[in-house]
Write a structure and sequence with these properties.
The complex is a heterodimer of chains A (about 300) and B (about 270). Chain A is mainly alpha-helical. Chain A has one domain: MetI-like (MetI-like fold, Orthogonal Bundle), CATH 1.10.3720.10. Chain A contains 14 helices and two strands. The two termini of chain A are about 45 Å apart. The relative contact order of chain A is 0.13. Chain B has about 270 residues and is mainly alpha-helical. Chain B has two domains: about 55 residues, no CATH class; about 210 residues, MetI-like (MetI-like fold). In chain B, helix 5 packs across helix 7 and helix 12 runs antiparallel to helix 13.
């Protein structure tokens, strides 16, 4: 049935249909990668027609820039704490919502809401929750007699990063909760019945049935959390703009500020390319590790 | 012992309900207070007398315009994403085109590209195209950045459609384009609606490209408007809470009305992305 005429019209259609997608993709996603590297070789404000070629001096400067290294360190703290906080709580909530308790629908509906809102709205809301005088958190601590724990939260370099990470966890835990819920629902009931017959308690069922079967989901969740944490921007920018004194600076906020506040587009591009390279290496490394894990299963 | 476990479960469920839900109660409660009342009373005090004056004020400062701008950009971008992605996915999943494999892999790699590497080149490009400061300038990056996930979901879905349908259409004299439009596209509507919901929420909430590509307050999207609100009215906490309530409650309402669809869309998109 596949005559030559039909296959020729296939090729024409294929090219025509693919063209818009390929055009958008090449112009806005692929070309920017070499362009960013190219810009990183210049001193340039992004607007004036003259760029001054400066070789690798932006890169040299970046490698000696303590703020950049601090930002990278903060990114790593964010990655580690995100995985250590979001995954366990997401798992507990997932178990909770799949167990036979009442009002499950209400709980599920409310728990998911943070996923829907913009980071800008969440950042603003939490900025006022952390407010030293009028904030919800300090007021609550005073209410239950823990005045000595009240502090400036976002204003204090010692607590700012952890406060912001708290909000990030609040925003993303619902996602991991849904992920684990879907995986738990997929576990056949017979396994639990068999475990019960063998005399396992509720906790025993969780440890010996649920947890081992969720290994794949857990490693996938770790990858998503890692990749997401390395490119984090919105919420931190809204809540602290990387301050006070760069204590919450991330690679993305630093890159944005260099490029669009101080108009050092060349330097900003160098940071962007470094970010790209670090994310790529991390993603490939984690995928290698988890693939190894999957085979070991 | 079992009673104790149950009690523990309910306690945990209730505590998380408070942690997630109470900030929104605080937001709405505060938005109904006057600025003086808020500063002089305890923050736990109920908003008596209840004032909607803050909402009037938010509306007067042109908040509806931000809604309109966000709706404009989001609707155009989501429509384009659906159209462009389904055209490409049709070829990638159903036509025997020689470069299909290569193109699909290239698109999938795009899901790994972090948005920040695109920021400076897209800013420069948008200026050159004369679209800087215009809402249409956002459409290009919005479409491009969301294409890979959409193509990934759609290609997977279209592959599962039965081959016979196409052969039947061909015998009836349909061209490949006609088959796409009359047969494959209508059958793909479940996948299309998942993608539409996911992209709608992502783009409605988008911030960083709006921050970089818009300069004129008249063109601000909702996230930009909100963000600038805190700079302008930072000390008037009840007013900001009113603006926050107005911008978040419609989305929450939409979610409560079509919960399954939204959860499914968000998870499908985030997993593939």
């Amino acid at each position: 049935m596949l005559g030559q005429e039909r296959s020729r019209s296939f090729t024409a259609t294929a090219i025509l249909f693919l063209l818009p997608a390929v055009a958008f993709y090449v112009v806005y996603m692929l070309l920017p990668i070499p362009m960013s590297f190219y810009y990183s070789l210049f001193k340039w404000d992004g607007i004036s027609p003259t760029k001054v070629y400066s070789g690798l001096s932006n890169w040299d400067e970046m490698l000696h820039d303590t703020i950049f290294w601090g930002a990278l360190r903060n990114n790593i703290v964010l990655v580690v704490l995100s995985i250590l906080i979001q995954l366990p709580i997401g798992l507990i909530l997932g178990v909770l919502l799949t167990s036979r308790i009442r009002f499950v629908k209400l709980f599920k509906t409310v728990y998911f809401i943070p996923m829907l809102l913009s980071s800008v709205a969440i950042g603003l809301l939490w900025k006022y929750i952390y407010d030293p005088t009028f904030g919800l958190l300090n007021s609550f601590l005073r209410l239950i007699g823990l005045q000595h724990l009240t502090t400036g939260w976002l204003g204090d370099p010692a607590t700012a990063l952890f406060s912001v990470i708290g909000t990030i966890c609040w925003q993303y835990i619902p996602f991991y909760m849904i992920l684990f819920m879907a995986a738990i629902v997929g576990i056949p009931d017979e396994l639990y019945e068999a475990a019960k017959i063998d005399g396992a308690s509720d906790l025993g069922c969780f440890r010996h049935v649920t947890l081992p079967l969720l290994r794949g989901t857990i490693s996938m969740a770790s990858i998503l959390s890692l990749v997401g944490s390395l490119k984090y921007f919105d919420l931190i920018y809204v809540m602290t703009e990387g301050g006070p004194n760069h204590s919450t600076e991330l690679m993305a906020t630093y890159m944005y500020k260099k490029a669009f506040h101080s108009f050092e587009m060349g330097y900003g591009s160098a940071v962007a390319v470094a970010m790209f390279a670090i994310s790529l290496i991390a993603a490939v490394a984690v995928m290698g590790v988890t693939q190894y894990d999957a085979r070991a299963l | 012992m079992r009673e104790f476990t149950r009690l523990l479960l309910y306690a945990a469920a209730f505590i998380w309900l408070m942690i997630t839900g109470y900030p929104f109660v605080f937001m709405v409660q505060t938005s109904l207070k006057g600025q003086m009342d808020f500063f002089t009373q305890s923050i736990w005090a109920l908003p008596v007398p209840c004032r909607v004056a803050n909402y009037d004020e938010v509306l007067r400062t042109g908040f509806l315009r931000y809604f309109g701008n966000s709706a404009f950009v989001t609707v155009i971008s989501v429509t384009l994403i659906l159209l462009v992605a389904s055209l490409a996915s049709y070829v990638l999943s159903r036509l025997p085109f020689r470069f299909n494999r290569f193109i699909l892999v290239a698109f999938m790699a795009g899901m790994m590209i972090p948005v920040h590497i695109m920021l400076i080149p897209v800013y420069v490009l948008t200026r050159r195209m004369g679209l800087y400061g215009s809402l249409l300038g956002l459409v290009g990056p919005y479409v491009a950045f969301n294409l890979p996930v959409a193509i990934f979901i759609l290609t997977g879905f279209m592959k599962e459609l039965p081959r016979e349908l196409e052969d039947a259409a061909y015998i009836d004299g349909c061209s490949p384009a006609g088959t796409f439009w009359r047969v494959v596209l209508p059958l793909s509507s479940p996948a299309l609606s998942t993608i539409a919901v996911y992209n709608f929420i992502i783009l409605w909430n988008e911030f960083i490209f709006a921050l970089v590509l818009l300069n004129d307050p008249k063109k601000w999207t909702l996230t930009m408007g909100l963000w600038n609100y805190q700079g302008q009215y930072g000390m008037n906490i009840p007013l900001i809470m009113a603006a926050l309530s107005m911008s978040t409650l419609p989305l929450i309402l939409f979610y409560i009305l079509s919960q399954e669809k939204v959860v499914k869309g968000m998870v499908a998109g985030a997993l593939k992305g």
